[in-house]
Amino acid sequence: MKARIHVTLKNGVLDPQGKAIEHALGNMGFDGVEAARQGKYIELDLKSTDRASAEKEVDEMCRKLLANTVIENYSIDLE
Amino acid sequence: MKARIHVTLKNGVLDPQGKAIEHALGNMGFDGVEAARQGKYIELDLKSTDRASAEKEVDEMCRKLLANTVIENYSIDLE
């Protein structure tokens, strides 16, 4: 089973990487970009084939290691 | 219009961040993880409302700035 995890900064948290992308794109002549935000994308290959237990385990991984829940949100897609 | 971009390392390219995640999860007792890979996730808010031109523009942004196409793949979702 494969888990796809998106970790993004919460609204209101300063996103210097996103701002850098915005400015760089603007400087390169792409003036159609109103805002940019950058997050992390993590793919995990899991041994588990049980969806419910895999979801619980990956959620725990996110809370304990992959995301800083003070400033970041995460979402999990299993397939 | 919103563009969601995933930038991931090509197969065969060393992924030290992914390896660090694998090892850290293993050390924390999550032994159900066979492999981990880390990529970037970028969200852009676009002024454009025309799907075809937006797709072309974002593709150009990826090739010129957001992805290093020598070692990275990218995928674009528009909505």
TrEMBL record, chains A, B:
InterPro entries: PurS (IPR003850), PurS-like_sf (IPR036604)
Location within or outside the cell: Cytoplasm
Cytoplasm recorded as keyword: yes
Pathway: Purine metabolism; IMP biosynthesis via de novo pathway; 5-amino-1-(5-phospho-D-ribosyl)imidazole from N(2)-formyl-N(1)-(5-phospho-D-ribosyl)glycinamide: step 1/2
Keyword Secreted part of the UniProt annotation: no
Reactions it catalyzes: N(2)-formyl-N(1)-(5-phospho-beta-D-ribosyl)glycinamide + L-glutamine + ATP + H2O = 2-formamido-N(1)-(5-O-phospho-beta-D-ribosyl)acetamidine + L-glutamate + ADP + phosphate + H(+)
Swiss-Prot/TrEMBL keywords: ATP-binding, Cytoplasm, Ligase, Nucleotide-binding, Purine biosynthesis
Broad class of the protein's primary localization: cytoplasm
GO MF terms, alphabetically ordered: phosphoribosylformylglycinamidine synthase activity
UniProt enzyme class: ligase
E.C. designation(s): 6.3.5.3
Complex and partners: Part of the FGAM synthase complex composed of 1 PurL, 1 PurQ and 2 PurS subunits.
Physiological role: Part of the phosphoribosylformylglycinamidine synthase complex involved in the purines biosynthetic pathway. Catalyzes the ATP-dependent conversion of formylglycinamide ribonucleotide (FGAR) and glutamine to yield formylglycinamidine ribonucleotide (FGAM) and glutamate. The FGAM synthase complex is composed of three subunits. PurQ produces an ammonia molecule by converting glutamine to glutamate. PurL transfers the ammonia molecule to FGAR to form FGAM in an ATP-dependent manner.
Record-stated family: Belongs to the PurS family.
Protein name as catalogued: Phosphoribosylformylglycinamidine synthase subunit PurS
Organism: Kordiimonas lipolytica
Gene assigned in the entry: purS
